[in-house]
User: What shape does this take?
Amino acid sequence: MDVERYRRSSYDIWQQMAAGWDSRRDWMWSVSRQVSEWMVARLDPRPGQTILELAAGTGETGFAAASRLGDDGRLIATDFAPQMVEAAQRRADELGLSNVEFRVMDAERMDLDDDTVDGVLCRWGYMLMAEPAAALSETRRVLRDGGRLALSVWGAAEHNPWAALGRRALEVRGHMRKPEPGDPGIFALGNEERLREVVAGAGFGSVEIAPVEVEYRFEDFEAYWRFLRELAGAVEMAIRELSDDERAEARGLIEQDVEPFRAGDGYVMPGMALNAVAS
Assistant: This one.
């Protein structure tokens, strides 16, 4: 894999996805709330602490932690995509949060001194990074002694049809490259053994992992297709490059694949995240 090319592509993808994640934030929070609340509960932020959020996206996970920090505490909300940071900052202003600092920052190359934060949050970020081991080592570096990391990644593809089916239809037609072992991607850290290995390898002495189930509900296929087009990152970038005929074919294949998850007029699709806390 060409690491720098991947980084540029990932940056472009998440810049373009920011508008969709911003407009659909309430729906995404309804799906992800139990994942984020588990993370914040296990991190257990206290008044006066400094908490860092990596790959914050539109910010909801970090905002749940900010409410625990008090006026003397601080959340540093970061993402490598400026459009995501701007979306998060707008939401913080709406919520009246005054203890949040926003930064555009690459988790693999943090512009922070050693031993400067009490806790780190990262929901669905490390798996998409070009070098997650480097990002986790940076995380360990900036954490103070006794500090904790709470993270979430997606489990294996078979536990997440909401994500796997759209990719599969594109991969079988050659519109997306099937990831090689070790490549970044939505399922890159979906094996508990692999996740534990990469976190422990960054210098964390204690790693606890727990599966957290989620549920994606779509009122009809159009809603699922809209999800793929507005929120699904690399899948949308691949769909965007197709001709009209190829796009129509891909849509038809995906509609067939999701039929087993039909519930009435809509669809209910399970998902499973792997959450971890490390110190």
Notes: The chain has one domain: 3-158+180-216+270-278. The first strand starts at residue 50 and ends at 53. The chain has a mean pLDDT of 96. Residues 3-23 form the longest helix (21 residues).
